[in-house]
C-alpha cells in the first residue's frame, strides 16, 4: 500500500506511523464529529497520517438485541460528512458483498472483519472497488496464512492492501498478540496493530464483550518497537456508555498523551535503523 495515494491523507512522507482511529460504531452525527475533531487536532499537532474509522453497521454481535447501527445510509452519510468537514480519509468495515459497492461511495478504505477475512467473494468485492483494503487478521489464523488473503486482493488488480493484527485467540475468553507475526506479515503488506481489539475479552457469559483498556499503551508501545507501520484504535468520549465495544476502547481524553509517547518511541526506533 502507498500511504500517499489515500485521498486527503496528510503527513504521509514524514516517517511516522499512520493511525486508524475513531469510534467502534457510528452512533450519530454529533458524536462522530466530536471524536473526529479531537483526533484530527492531535494528529495534526503530532504530524501523524490519520484515517477516521467508524463502522456504519455492526453485523457480528453476540446477542440479537445488541446495537447494530442507526441505518446504513444514514451512518455512511455521517462518514462522508466527517471527511468533508475535516478533510481526512475515512474507513468502515463491510460484512456482505453488497456492502462493498455501497460503502465505497462514501469512504476511502474498506475493512474486512477478522471473522470474514477468508471469505473470498467479500475480499474480492472490496478489492474490485479500487479502494484501499484493510484485512483484519483472523483470530484463528497464523500470520503466515495472511499472505493468501493479501494475494486475493492483488489478484483482483488492487495493490492497495494492508494487514491489521488484532490478536489471536488461544483460549475461550482472551486475546494474545504474538509480536513475532509482525515481521512475518510485513513480508506481504504494510502491517497495522489493532491495540484495542487485541485487548478484548470475548465470549463473556453475559454476551457482552469485556476488555482490558488499561493495557492499551503497553500493547501500542510494543507494536511500535516491533516496527508496525500503523496503529488502529477505537476511542470514545464516554466508553462506559458507548453502544459497541466500550469495554476495550480508549477514553478520548487519554489520546494525546498516548500518541505523544508513541511518536517519541517511533522517533527512537527510526534512529536505530
TrEMBL record:
Gene3D superfamilies: Aldolase class I (3.20.20.70). Its EC number is 2.5.1.55. InterPro entries: Aldolase_TIM (IPR013785), DAHP1/KDSA (IPR006218), KDO8P_synthase (IPR006269). Pathway: Bacterial outer membrane biogenesis; lipopolysaccharide biosynthesis; Carbohydrate biosynthesis; 3-deoxy-D-manno-octulosonate biosynthesis; 3-deoxy-D-manno-octulosonate from D-ribulose 5-phosphate: step 2/3. Keywords: Cytoplasm, Transferase. It is an enzyme of class 2 (transferase). One of its GO terms (molecular function) is 3-deoxy-8-phosphooctulonate synthase activity. Residues 8-265 form the DAHP synthetase I/KDSA domain. It is found in: Cytoplasm. Pfam families: DAHP_synth_1 (PF00793). GO terms for cellular component: cytoplasm. It catalyses: D-arabinose 5-phosphate + phosphoenolpyruvate + H2O = 3-deoxy-alpha-D-manno-2-octulosonate-8-phosphate + phosphate. Transmembrane segments: none annotated. Its main location: cytoplasm. Belongs to the KdsA family. This is 3-deoxy-8-phosphooctulonate synthase. It comes from Cerina litoralis.
